[in-house]
Amino acid sequence: MQVRKLGDDLSVAPQIAVADIAALAAQGYRSLICNRPDGEGADQPLYEEIARAAEAAGLKPVYLPIESGKVDDAAAQRFGELLCELPKPVFAYCRTGTRSATLWALAQVQRRPLPEILDIARVAGYDLAAVARRIANGGRTPVDRVDARHQIVIIGGGAAGIATAASLLSRDAKLDIAIIDPADVHYYQPGWTLVGAGVFKPSHTARTMASLIPRGVHWIKAAVAAFEPRANAVVLDGCRVVGYDQLVICPGLKLNWAGIEGLDETLGRNGVTSNYRYDLAPYTWDLVQKLREGRALFTQPPMPIKCAGAPQKAMYLSCDHWRREGVLAKIEPEFYNAGGVLFGVADYVPALMHYVERYGIDLNFGHTLVKVDGARRIASFARNRTDGTRETVEREFDFLHVVPPQVAPDFLRVSPFADAAGWVDVDPASLRHRQFGNVHALGDCTNTSNAKTAAAARKQAPVVAHNVLAALGRARTEARYDGYGSCPLTVERGKIVLAEFTYGGKLAPSFPSWLLDGRKPTRAAWWLKERVLPPLYWQAMLKGREWMAQPELAD
């Protein structure tokens, strides 16, 4: 925990954990302000978890969430009021501490000379020079000048962003590329299903961002606040401005934990878990091992979501463990899917239904999880009646695996690049933005109809790399993405149904059926998932090695 003092009455820090609260209380802090909205990061504890621990330790918690780059005058004024009202000293945090420090700086404008504000922040480790420019400009961000300019700017250092950068460099090592991402850790999220089943250790799915950024690529460790596409500029948190010739957008999506009432108050306790969060996947495995009887609920929200098969994977692997332990007969597994089918590609449904019947799973379609009462262990689902009205169905549970609703990141939803639903509006084949010719997007943030999986990003990255070069005049043809996605459906420990398909649900197997028939559960597919795909991800996809991923070029 990196505590940085901005005065006797206030200290700020990057994201804290529940385990840090006791130390803060021991150091004499009496109040805590959270400036980070829930759901920004996969390893981020929810505010309610922090607040409960703070209250138990005698600290007064306050939630003043600030979207990245959205530190406005009203928020700064409220922060200043809190510093006057709350018991002191006060401890504030966000992702890196920068938002909290920025709020403090803007709240101090009428109290201290600007040089003194900047100096105090500098000593604490925060360079707020860009905020001074914002204040001098009446709170508006100037875009007629830039702090840095790069030939190609990539938003997001996840699977899609790093793979695209590596594919670009494999084609032209002299390109000037920058990746913008504030995270310190990069996660192999497809591995979290196996963490939740006790197959992988969590540490096997995480590496430092610094170790993965391709050599020669500039890493701008900051969050994006806004876009100015007419000026070919990206505005960063803290009001720095980065210019570009070509822009690639791939920051992923946002897990909307707050979209389910009561979830943030009970997630990670009371038998409520999710493999969609790094720190909760081990809790899933812990709950699965301890459950010997009772009702186990598994949920799936409305589409789109990342890896549409993941909700089922958790269910099948849990049921297989209970079967092996001889306790499945005492457990009632139930699946609540907001959609109307078990899986979107019909060819794979028969194999999945075999396991549904084998495990005795009760299927419930058209049910959307809307509320969780962790203390009473009751999950509430909304469903449509035959007359078109809505009703609420309540189910008691002993185990609840939740998949949250998912939306585009906040800064994208309000950007000029978004469609009406908030996703980046691109041509599904070229992945070029429909309005801005020097902008491409890939991965989970786009409005294409493919499955949002790492396998899709692996196929998309070479397409975008080629088409960016074409936009720069360095390639004549256009590459096309056919909508390929893959979902290894782990139906039991040691067997997988390997779903591979393109736009429209057309089957697209990578191997001949005599070697691996994806429509059937096979040990070969499990071996691929457990042993081949992780090194393929780390050593091929993120290194620009396009094994079985070369882009299709237009005639």
TrEMBL record:
Q: Can you tell which superkingdom this protein's organism belongs to?
A: Bacteria
**Organism of this sequence:** Solimonas terrae
Gene3D superfamilies given in the database record: FAD/NAD(P)-binding domain, Protein tyrosine phosphatase superfamily
Looking at the record, the residues that make up the FAD/NAD(P)-binding domain are: 151-270
Q: What keywords tag this UniProt record?
A: FAD, Flavoprotein, Oxidoreductase, Quinone, Transit peptide
The answer to whether UniProt assigns keyword Transit peptide to this entry is: yes
Cofactor entry:
FAD
Which Pfam families is this protein grouped with?
BLH_phosphatase, Pyr_redox_2
Protein name, entry field: TIGR01244 family phosphatase
Q: Which GO terms describe its biological process?
A: sulfide oxidation, using sulfide:quinone oxidoreductase
Which intervals hold domain Beta-lactamase hydrolase-like protein phosphatase-like?
3-109
Which Gene Ontology MF annotations are present?
Answer: FAD binding; hydrolase activity; quinone binding; sulfide:quinone oxidoreductase activity
